Q: What sequence folds into this?
């Protein structure tokens, strides 16, 4: 703990005779004479961390005063060193991070230092939730069979995690089968306040999944960062960021009958995308916010990456305390939590006018209508009555306008696959109740169960060729669906429990039948998926399903029954029931009173306690049976296609070598358009046998049936660098009309995979650049999107704009992010990929956000100079870049200590 900065260490009463110490913001307000009470609640929680961790070195009194003086509309030049209370990982991002830590220990050992110097300084929890796939569904033992397959495929990864548990003192694992990281975080890992040597402080964190923001729903400040940045945070480095703008969202009114939290969050996502909140804090306030249940708040907070904000924050109030009681936290914990927030004047949802926000937007909850979002982006909301017309419109639009480039006469064409199944454009082939966004919310899950009950009773069915699944975010969900008597009805429609994990939403839907895949590709069918997820980017759900819609769980069931998105569920029947009677959506839609009556089953403290006691007590036979786990402080890397020693510390020296800042004679490895996601750059889903990664696996004796996914193989750089820019739907403008990870090698003019071209450029000593448009790097916080870019030899990425996490990840890997200025773009500058490029102006001492110059040498001999903005945003990022990235920087600090 820090010293008693500015004499703010005070005492507060908890309950009875219990007292605790805390760093008092009211005392700081008096000391500095600044009206801290008008600061956004989220800023005040960060301020407490800065105050408590003030050590005069990494965190100074000047930092405290700067943040306490936050101005709603001030210039954003101050860098905040934010020390978090803990770190949360999921396994796709956690395994490569653990591999990096293990590699750091190897370096320490080789240099004769104590490997134990490399140790997380804050608690780290890894939740295994991304590795299960929906291979089995619509069968009684689907859950059991899918888990057995998961353990077979991932045995080497799970052995590695178990090594980590015994090697690091502060590293814990929640084994497979408990649920999705964010829901487990919400229901179990988050403790409200922490107590260290009698000093209490609020729960804060960063996580290696962009949807870490779900935890904002219970008043916890936290957001997703790349594993690269999380690693630094684990090892004692503050998370650095510029003082943010804070957008206040004033919610008024109440949701109408029949409108769900999913409809609300899709509306908020659309609204805040238009408000442009990228890189900003969003904080909800007002009477409408008070009316929302805690789980509705968590649903909205979870979608912050989709509306582009760093956080979607809800202050602590009575609903938060009630949720803590209902989920089995102890009375002592709850008393300390409530007393602490009241002592800090942080308790309660602010009313309009209480807080100074950078700007405010309002939403009347009464205006929200049932909606879906799609077919390619979560911010593209469509009211349910417009889905049919929207699909028909996009069906004929060109791909450049988000369309499918088909002929209108093909819309109703029927094709028959080799299994004899008839299939049409718009047919729903995957219907999945999945994803942390919705499965943490009993209101929408009970609604899905009630709709299923009414549908079954009316005689409705779901076609057997539709791949249906229910993947709850927690085992508690199954318990309350059973207790409410709804699970049998979901099962009758095909929505039996198939997994506890992040499935369809991240591309773990499993495959369609060979006959269906063949029919889609042969006839160029635009098939659909409907899922209760948060991401629907191209090729994410399934490489052959091009139209993907996000919807509430009850709407997922409704569209599965209807069987096609080219149906207007507001005017046309969902299907025909008993006796051929037409059944409409209104006939089976549950009322709020029906849902309310069953909510008592969802908040049962005893159920939560018993469930999470098993994490340590009885984690499951499959986990207990993992054998051959290595021991010791230093990992002895076995031969494996899953886990390999990462190459980021090769040629490591205790003193940094000068970073090369001038680039000459560079070639374009890829030239891309707008909204290139981390899925495009580093896919998580299936590996094609004809791709560079697939060829490498085959050459290393892995059968195609055992390829698993890119996500599960993130512990092996050989796979991941070959998978970089390998998404089957990525469009490199250097190769017009072609989809997939290909490029033109220059000057030979040969068409090659991006990986092969990159290796040729590296072999020839030619530096490369990547060009992009707006919102480059949106999507999940994939380290490998930056790590793979670096391993392909890319020195700079030049775009119109960057997504927050990906930009910082590029810096963290020693790759220069640069932004076009004014109206400059790939298109206005006529960049085709045939040019060579120089980068000037970064020689000598780099300054954050300085200008640089791109020199374009065209094929015809012409030269053009273009000004760029360097997106190394903060002084600490300059240091990271000088050291060759954040990992060498932190390792040098630890070894020096």
A:
């Amino acid at each position: 703990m820090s010293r008693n900065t500015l004499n703010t260490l005070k005492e507060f009463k908890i309950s009875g005779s219990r007292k605790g110490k805390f760093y008092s913001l009211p005392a700081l307000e008096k000391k500095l004479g600044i009206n801290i009470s008008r600061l956004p609640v989220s800023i005040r929680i960060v301020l407490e961390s800065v105050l408590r961790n003030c050590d005069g070195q990494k965190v100074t009194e000047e930092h405290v005063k700067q943040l306490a003086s936050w101005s709603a509309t001030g210039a954003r030049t101050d860098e905040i060193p934010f020390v978090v209370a803990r770190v949360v990982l999921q396994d796709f991002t956690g395994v490569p991070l653990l591999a990096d830590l293990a590699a750091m220990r190897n370096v320490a050992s080789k240099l004769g230092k104590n490997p134990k110097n490399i140790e997380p300084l804050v608690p780290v929890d890894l939740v295994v939730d991304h590795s299960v796939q929906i291979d089995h569904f619509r069968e009684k033992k689907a859950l059991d069979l899918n888990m057995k397959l998961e353990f077979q495929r991932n045995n080497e990864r799970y052995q590695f995690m178990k090594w980590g548990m015994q090697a690091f003192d502060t590293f814990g694992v929640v084994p497979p089968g408990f649920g999705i990281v964010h829901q487990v975080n919400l229901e179990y890992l988050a403790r409200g306040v922490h107590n260290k040597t009698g000093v209490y402080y609020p729960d804060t964190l960063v996580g290696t999944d962009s949807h870490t923001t779900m935890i904002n729903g219970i008043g916890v400040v936290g957001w997703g960062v790349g594993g690269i940045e999380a690693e630094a945070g684990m090892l004692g480095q503050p998370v650095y960021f510029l003082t943010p703008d804070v957008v206040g969202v004033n919610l008024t009114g109440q949701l109408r009958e029949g409108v769900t939290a999913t409809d609300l969050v899709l509306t908020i996502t659309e609204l805040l995308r238009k408000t442009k909140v990228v890189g900003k804090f969003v904080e909800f306030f007002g009477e409408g916010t008070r009316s929302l249940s805690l789980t509705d708040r968590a649903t909205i907070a979870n979608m912050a990456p989709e509306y582009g904000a760093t956080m979607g924050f809800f202050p602590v109030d009575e609903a938060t305390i009630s949720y803590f009681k209902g989920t089995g936290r102890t009375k002592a914990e709850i008393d300390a939590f409530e007393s602490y927030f009241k002592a800090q004047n942080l308790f309660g949802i602010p009313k309009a006018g209480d807080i100074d926000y950078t700007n405010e937007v309002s939403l009347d909850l009464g205006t929200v209508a049932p909606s879906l979002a799609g077919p390619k982006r979560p911010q593209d909301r469509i009211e349910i009555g417009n889905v049919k017309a929207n699909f028909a419109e996009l069906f004929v639009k060109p791909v450049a306008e988000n369309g499918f480039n088909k002929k209108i006469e093909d819309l109703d064409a029927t094709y028959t696959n080799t299994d004899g199944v008839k299939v049409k454009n718009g047919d729903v082939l995957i219907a999945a109740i999945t994803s942390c966004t919705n499965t943490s919310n009993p209101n929408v899950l009970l609604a899905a169960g009630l709709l299923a009950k009414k549908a079954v009773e009316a005689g409705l069915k779901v076609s057997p060729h539709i791949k249906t699944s229910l993947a709850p975010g927690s085992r508690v969900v199954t318990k309350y669906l059973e207790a409410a008597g709804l699970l049998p009805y979901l099962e009758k429609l095909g929505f039996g429990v198939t997994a506890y994990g992040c499935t369809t939403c991240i591309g773990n839907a499993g495959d369609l039948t060979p006959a269906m895949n063949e029919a889609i590709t042969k006839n160029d069918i635009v098939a659909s998926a409907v899922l209760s997820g948060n991401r629907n980017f191209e090729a994410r759900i399934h490489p052959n399903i091009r139209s993907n819609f996000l919807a509430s769980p009850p709407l997922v069931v409704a569209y599965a029954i209807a069987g096609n998105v080219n149906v207007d569920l507001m005017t046309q029947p969902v299907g025909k029931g008993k006796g051929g009677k037409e059944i409409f959506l209104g006939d089976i839609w549950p009322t709020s009173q029906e849902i309310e009556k069953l909510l008592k089953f969802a908040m049962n403290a005893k159920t939560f306690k018993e469930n999470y006691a098993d994490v340590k007590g009885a984690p499951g036979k499959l986990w207990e049976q993992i054998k051959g786990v290595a021991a010791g402080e230093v990992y002895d890397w076995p031969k494996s296609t899953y886990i390999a020693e990462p190459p980021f510390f090769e040629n490591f020296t205790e003193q940094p070598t000068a970073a090369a800042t001038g680039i000459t004679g560079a070639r374009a490895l890829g030239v891309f358009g707008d909204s290139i996601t981390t899925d495009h750059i580093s896919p998580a889903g299936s590996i094609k046998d004809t791709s560079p990664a697939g060829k490498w696996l085959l050459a290393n004796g892995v059968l195609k049936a055992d390829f698993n996914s890119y996500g599960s193989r993130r512990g092996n750089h050989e796979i991941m660098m070959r998978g970089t820019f390998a998404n089957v739907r990525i469009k490199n403008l250097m190769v017009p009309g072609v989809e997939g990870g290909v490029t033109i090698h220059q000057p030979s003019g040969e068409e090659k995979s991006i990986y092969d071209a990159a290796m040729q450029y590296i072999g020839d000593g030619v530096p490369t650049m990547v060009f992009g448009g707006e919102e480059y790097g949106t999507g999940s916080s994939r380290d490998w999107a930056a790590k793979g870019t670096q391993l392909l030899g890319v020195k700079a990425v030049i775009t119109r704009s960057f997504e927050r996490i990906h930009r910082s990840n590029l810096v963290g890997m020693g790759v220069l992010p640069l932004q076009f200025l004014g109206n400059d773009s790939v298109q206005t500058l006529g960049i085709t990929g045939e040019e060579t490029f120089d980068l000037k102006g970064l020689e000598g001492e780099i300054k954050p956000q300085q200008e640089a110059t791109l020199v374009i040498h065209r094929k015809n001999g012409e030269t053009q100079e273009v000004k760029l903005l360097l997106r190394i945003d903060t002084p600490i990022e300059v240091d990271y870049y000088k050291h060759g990235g954040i990992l060498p920087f932190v390792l040098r600090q630890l070894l020096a200590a």
Q: What stands out?
A: Residues 142-167 form the longest helix (26 residues). The longest strand covers residues 663-671. The mean pLDDT is 94. The chain has 32 helices and 34 strands.
